[in-house]
Design a protein that fits this description.
This protein has about 280 residues and is α+β, with helices and mostly antiparallel strands. The protein has three domains: about 80 residues; about 40 residues, no CATH class; about 140 residues, no CATH class. The protein is about 60% helix and about 15% strand. Strand 3, helix 1 and strand 4 form a beta-alpha-beta unit. The protein is rod-shaped and about 125 Å long.
Length: about 280
Protein backbone atom coordinates (compact mmCIF):
# COMPACT_ATOMS: atom_id res chain seq x y z
CA UNK A 1 0.00 0.00 0.00
CA UNK A 2 1.10 3.54 -0.58
CA UNK A 3 1.74 5.99 2.24
CA UNK A 4 3.86 8.93 3.38
CA UNK A 5 4.99 10.08 6.82
CA UNK A 6 7.37 12.67 8.23
CA UNK A 7 8.65 13.06 11.79
CA UNK A 8 10.90 15.93 12.92
CA UNK A 9 12.65 16.89 16.16
CA UNK A 10 15.22 19.41 17.40
CA UNK A 11 18.37 17.94 18.95
CA UNK A 12 21.64 19.30 20.27
CA UNK A 13 23.13 18.33 16.90
CA UNK A 14 20.51 20.18 14.87
CA UNK A 15 17.09 19.50 13.36
CA UNK A 16 16.53 15.81 12.72
CA UNK A 17 13.82 14.59 10.31
CA UNK A 18 12.70 11.23 8.94
CA UNK A 19 10.71 10.91 5.73
CA UNK A 20 9.10 7.56 4.87
CA UNK A 21 7.48 6.74 1.54
CA UNK A 22 5.83 3.42 0.69
CA UNK A 23 4.61 2.32 -2.73
CA UNK A 24 3.07 -0.90 -3.97
CA UNK A 25 5.33 -3.92 -4.47
CA UNK A 26 4.82 -7.68 -4.37
CA UNK A 27 7.60 -8.12 -1.79
CA UNK A 28 9.33 -6.00 0.86
CA UNK A 29 12.10 -3.82 -0.51
CA UNK A 30 13.90 -1.14 1.53
CA UNK A 31 16.14 1.71 0.44
CA UNK A 32 17.51 4.35 2.81
CA UNK A 33 19.59 7.52 2.90
CA UNK A 34 21.23 8.54 6.17
CA UNK A 35 23.99 11.05 7.04
CA UNK A 36 27.46 9.79 7.88
CA UNK A 37 26.95 10.27 11.63
CA UNK A 38 24.15 7.67 11.58
CA UNK A 39 25.57 5.19 9.07
CA UNK A 40 26.26 2.72 11.88
CA UNK A 41 22.50 2.54 12.54
CA UNK A 42 21.60 0.99 9.18
CA UNK A 43 21.18 -2.60 10.51
CA UNK A 44 18.90 -1.35 13.31
CA UNK A 45 16.93 0.80 10.87
CA UNK A 46 16.47 -2.14 8.52
CA UNK A 47 15.31 -4.39 11.37
CA UNK A 48 12.84 -1.80 12.69
CA UNK A 49 11.37 -1.16 9.25
CA UNK A 50 11.07 -4.87 8.41
CA UNK A 51 9.22 -5.51 11.68
CA UNK A 52 6.55 -2.93 10.79
CA UNK A 53 6.24 -3.22 7.01
CA UNK A 54 5.89 -6.69 5.50
CA UNK A 55 5.10 -5.83 1.87
CA UNK A 56 5.82 -2.88 -0.38
CA UNK A 57 8.73 -0.74 -1.53
CA UNK A 58 9.82 1.48 1.37
CA UNK A 59 12.06 4.53 1.01
CA UNK A 60 13.51 6.03 4.19
CA UNK A 61 15.39 9.32 4.28
CA UNK A 62 17.07 10.80 7.36
CA UNK A 63 17.93 14.51 7.20
CA UNK A 64 20.10 16.37 9.71
CA UNK A 65 20.26 20.16 9.50
CA UNK A 66 23.24 20.90 11.70
CA UNK A 67 23.40 23.86 14.03
CA UNK A 68 25.63 26.77 13.10
CA UNK A 69 29.07 26.23 14.65
CA UNK A 70 30.28 29.83 14.30
CA UNK A 71 30.38 30.44 18.05
CA UNK A 72 32.68 27.49 18.68
CA UNK A 73 36.47 28.11 18.67
CA UNK A 74 38.38 26.54 15.79
CA UNK A 75 40.48 23.55 16.70
CA UNK A 76 43.45 23.72 14.34
CA UNK A 77 46.01 21.05 13.59
CA UNK A 78 48.87 23.56 13.53
CA UNK A 79 51.51 21.05 12.45
CA UNK A 80 49.43 20.00 9.44
CA UNK A 81 48.65 23.67 8.68
CA UNK A 82 52.36 24.48 8.62
CA UNK A 83 53.06 21.59 6.26
CA UNK A 84 50.25 22.65 3.92
CA UNK A 85 51.41 26.29 3.97
CA UNK A 86 54.99 25.27 3.17
CA UNK A 87 53.86 23.04 0.34
CA UNK A 88 51.58 25.78 -1.04
CA UNK A 89 54.47 28.28 -0.99
CA UNK A 90 56.73 25.83 -2.77
CA UNK A 91 54.12 25.25 -5.48
CA UNK A 92 53.68 29.01 -5.91
CA UNK A 93 57.42 29.49 -6.43
CA UNK A 94 57.61 26.65 -8.94
CA UNK A 95 54.82 28.24 -10.92
CA UNK A 96 56.45 31.66 -10.73
CA UNK A 97 53.64 33.09 -8.64
CA UNK A 98 55.03 35.22 -5.80
CA UNK A 99 51.63 35.77 -4.12
CA UNK A 100 51.39 34.14 -0.69
CA UNK A 101 48.84 31.34 -0.23
CA UNK A 102 45.32 32.41 0.78
CA UNK A 103 44.76 31.55 4.48
CA UNK A 104 41.12 30.65 3.87
CA UNK A 105 42.19 28.15 1.19
CA UNK A 106 44.57 26.58 3.70
CA UNK A 107 41.77 26.21 6.26
CA UNK A 108 39.70 24.21 3.75
CA UNK A 109 42.37 21.53 3.50
CA UNK A 110 41.04 18.26 4.98
CA UNK A 111 42.14 17.81 8.55
CA UNK A 112 43.43 21.34 9.16
CA UNK A 113 40.29 22.25 11.10
CA UNK A 114 39.51 19.43 13.49
CA UNK A 115 35.87 18.59 14.07
CA UNK A 116 35.11 18.48 17.79
CA UNK A 117 34.57 14.96 19.03
CA UNK A 118 31.01 14.37 20.14
CA UNK A 119 29.20 11.54 21.82
CA UNK A 120 26.87 10.32 19.06
CA UNK A 121 24.94 8.01 21.40
CA UNK A 122 22.18 10.55 22.19
CA UNK A 123 21.84 11.37 18.48
CA UNK A 124 21.48 7.68 17.62
CA UNK A 125 18.82 7.13 20.27
CA UNK A 126 16.83 10.17 19.14
CA UNK A 127 17.16 8.94 15.56
CA UNK A 128 15.67 5.53 16.36
CA UNK A 129 12.89 7.01 18.51
CA UNK A 130 12.01 9.42 15.72
CA UNK A 131 12.03 6.52 13.24
CA UNK A 132 9.46 4.72 15.38
CA UNK A 133 7.24 7.80 15.26
CA UNK A 134 7.57 8.06 11.47
CA UNK A 135 6.80 4.36 11.02
CA UNK A 136 3.76 4.70 13.32
CA UNK A 137 2.41 7.46 11.09
CA UNK A 138 3.19 5.47 7.95
CA UNK A 139 1.44 2.36 9.28
CA UNK A 140 -1.60 4.48 10.18
CA UNK A 141 -1.62 6.00 6.68
CA UNK A 142 -1.42 2.55 5.09
CA UNK A 143 -4.18 1.30 7.41
CA UNK A 144 -6.52 4.03 6.17
CA UNK A 145 -5.81 3.02 2.60
CA UNK A 146 -6.32 -0.61 3.59
CA UNK A 147 -9.80 0.20 4.88
CA UNK A 148 -10.66 1.83 1.57
CA UNK A 149 -9.36 -1.18 -0.37
CA UNK A 150 -11.22 -3.59 1.94
CA UNK A 151 -14.51 -1.78 1.24
CA UNK A 152 -13.82 -1.99 -2.50
CA UNK A 153 -13.01 -5.73 -2.31
CA UNK A 154 -16.17 -6.45 -0.33
CA UNK A 155 -18.17 -4.60 -2.97
CA UNK A 156 -16.59 -6.72 -5.74
CA UNK A 157 -17.24 -9.87 -3.68
CA UNK A 158 -20.92 -8.94 -3.42
CA UNK A 159 -21.05 -8.55 -7.19
CA UNK A 160 -19.54 -12.02 -7.62
CA UNK A 161 -22.16 -13.45 -5.26
CA UNK A 162 -24.93 -11.78 -7.28
CA UNK A 163 -23.58 -13.19 -10.55
CA UNK A 164 -23.34 -16.69 -9.08
CA UNK A 165 -26.90 -16.45 -7.79
CA UNK A 166 -28.14 -15.38 -11.24
CA UNK A 167 -26.41 -18.30 -12.97
CA UNK A 168 -27.66 -20.77 -10.34
CA UNK A 169 -31.22 -19.49 -10.70
CA UNK A 170 -31.11 -20.14 -14.45
CA UNK A 171 -29.62 -23.65 -14.20
CA UNK A 172 -32.95 -25.55 -14.46
CA UNK A 173 -33.91 -23.56 -17.54
CA UNK A 174 -30.48 -24.10 -19.10
CA UNK A 175 -30.62 -27.86 -18.42
CA UNK A 176 -34.10 -28.12 -19.95
CA UNK A 177 -33.12 -26.19 -23.06
CA UNK A 178 -29.93 -28.23 -23.45
CA UNK A 179 -31.85 -31.52 -23.13
CA UNK A 180 -34.50 -30.46 -25.64
CA UNK A 181 -31.87 -29.31 -28.11
CA UNK A 182 -29.88 -32.55 -27.89
CA UNK A 183 -33.05 -34.70 -28.06
CA UNK A 184 -34.27 -32.87 -31.15
CA UNK A 185 -30.90 -33.30 -32.82
CA UNK A 186 -30.79 -37.04 -32.13
CA UNK A 187 -34.33 -37.53 -33.41
CA UNK A 188 -33.35 -35.77 -36.63
CA UNK A 189 -30.49 -38.22 -37.12
CA UNK A 190 -32.21 -41.41 -35.97
CA UNK A 191 -35.73 -42.35 -37.06
CA UNK A 192 -36.50 -44.57 -34.04
CA UNK A 193 -33.97 -43.95 -31.24
CA UNK A 194 -33.69 -46.12 -28.17
CA UNK A 195 -35.29 -43.70 -25.72
CA UNK A 196 -34.00 -45.46 -22.61
CA UNK A 197 -30.44 -45.38 -23.89
CA UNK A 198 -30.92 -41.83 -25.08
CA UNK A 199 -32.12 -40.71 -21.65
CA UNK A 200 -29.01 -42.30 -20.08
CA UNK A 201 -26.71 -40.51 -22.50
CA UNK A 202 -28.52 -37.23 -21.93
CA UNK A 203 -28.11 -37.66 -18.17
CA UNK A 204 -24.36 -38.27 -18.59
CA UNK A 205 -23.97 -35.20 -20.81
CA UNK A 206 -25.99 -33.06 -18.41
CA UNK A 207 -23.83 -34.20 -15.50
CA UNK A 208 -20.63 -33.45 -17.43
CA UNK A 209 -21.82 -29.95 -18.30
CA UNK A 210 -23.37 -29.16 -14.91
CA UNK A 211 -21.79 -26.10 -13.24
CA UNK A 212 -23.45 -26.35 -9.84
CA UNK A 213 -20.19 -27.43 -8.15
CA UNK A 214 -18.29 -24.52 -9.66
CA UNK A 215 -20.96 -22.12 -8.41
CA UNK A 216 -20.82 -23.63 -4.92
CA UNK A 217 -17.03 -23.30 -4.85
CA UNK A 218 -17.24 -19.67 -5.99
CA UNK A 219 -19.61 -18.96 -3.11
CA UNK A 220 -17.16 -20.69 -0.77
CA UNK A 221 -14.28 -18.58 -2.08
CA UNK A 222 -16.28 -15.39 -1.49
CA UNK A 223 -16.93 -16.49 2.09
CA UNK A 224 -13.23 -17.15 2.61
CA UNK A 225 -12.36 -13.79 1.04
CA UNK A 226 -14.54 -12.03 3.60
CA UNK A 227 -13.01 -14.05 6.45
CA UNK A 228 -9.45 -13.28 5.34
CA UNK A 229 -10.19 -9.56 5.05
CA UNK A 230 -11.39 -9.58 8.67
CA UNK A 231 -8.06 -10.92 9.96
CA UNK A 232 -5.62 -8.66 11.79
CA UNK A 233 -2.50 -9.99 10.05
CA UNK A 234 -0.73 -9.77 6.66
CA UNK A 235 -3.14 -11.23 4.11
CA UNK A 236 -1.82 -10.21 0.68
CA UNK A 237 -0.18 -13.47 -0.29
CA UNK A 238 -3.06 -15.58 0.99
CA UNK A 239 -5.43 -13.57 -1.19
CA UNK A 240 -3.08 -14.06 -4.14
CA UNK A 241 -3.53 -17.83 -3.84
CA UNK A 242 -7.28 -17.53 -3.23
CA UNK A 243 -7.70 -15.53 -6.43
CA UNK A 244 -6.04 -18.35 -8.37
CA UNK A 245 -8.88 -20.57 -7.16
CA UNK A 246 -11.43 -17.94 -8.18
CA UNK A 247 -9.94 -17.89 -11.67
CA UNK A 248 -9.98 -21.67 -11.93
CA UNK A 249 -13.71 -21.87 -11.20
CA UNK A 250 -14.53 -18.97 -13.54
CA UNK A 251 -12.58 -20.63 -16.36
CA UNK A 252 -14.36 -23.95 -15.80
CA UNK A 253 -17.72 -22.19 -15.73
CA UNK A 254 -16.94 -20.60 -19.09
CA UNK A 255 -15.77 -23.87 -20.65
CA UNK A 256 -18.94 -25.71 -19.55
CA UNK A 257 -21.31 -22.95 -20.54
CA UNK A 258 -24.16 -23.98 -22.83
CA UNK A 259 -25.81 -20.59 -23.33
CA UNK A 260 -24.81 -17.00 -24.03
CA UNK A 261 -25.97 -15.67 -20.64
CA UNK A 262 -23.78 -18.09 -18.68
CA UNK A 263 -20.82 -17.33 -20.94
CA UNK A 264 -21.38 -13.62 -20.36
CA UNK A 265 -21.54 -14.21 -16.60
CA UNK A 266 -18.25 -16.14 -16.74
CA UNK A 267 -16.60 -13.22 -18.52
CA UNK A 268 -18.02 -10.75 -15.98
CA UNK A 269 -16.65 -12.95 -13.19
CA UNK A 270 -13.17 -12.87 -14.72
CA UNK A 271 -13.33 -9.08 -14.95
CA UNK A 272 -14.31 -8.80 -11.27
CA UNK A 273 -11.60 -11.26 -10.23
CA UNK A 274 -8.99 -9.27 -12.15
CA UNK A 275 -10.16 -6.05 -10.50
CA UNK A 276 -9.82 -7.72 -7.11
CA UNK A 277 -6.34 -9.03 -8.02
CA UNK A 278 -5.18 -5.51 -8.94
CA UNK A 279 -6.25 -4.21 -5.54
CA UNK A 280 -4.80 -7.17 -3.66
CA UNK A 281 -1.36 -6.22 -5.00
CA UNK A 282 -1.68 -3.13 -2.77
CA UNK A 283 -2.32 -5.12 0.41
CA UNK A 284 0.27 -6.29 2.89
Amino acid sequence: MTGFARAEADTEFGTLAWEARAVNHRHFELSMRVPEECRVLEPRIREAAGARIRRGKLELGLFLRRREAGAEPLNLDEALLAEVATAAGRVARLLGNAAPPNPFDLLRWPGVVREPERDLGPLHERTMALLDAALDDLVASRAREGERIEALLLEKAAQITALVATVRERLPEVHTRMRERLLARVQELVAAPDMQRLEQELAIIAQRLDVAEELDRLDGHVTELREVLARDEPIGRRLDFLLQEFNREANTLGSKSQDADTTRAAVDLKVLIEQIREQVQNLE
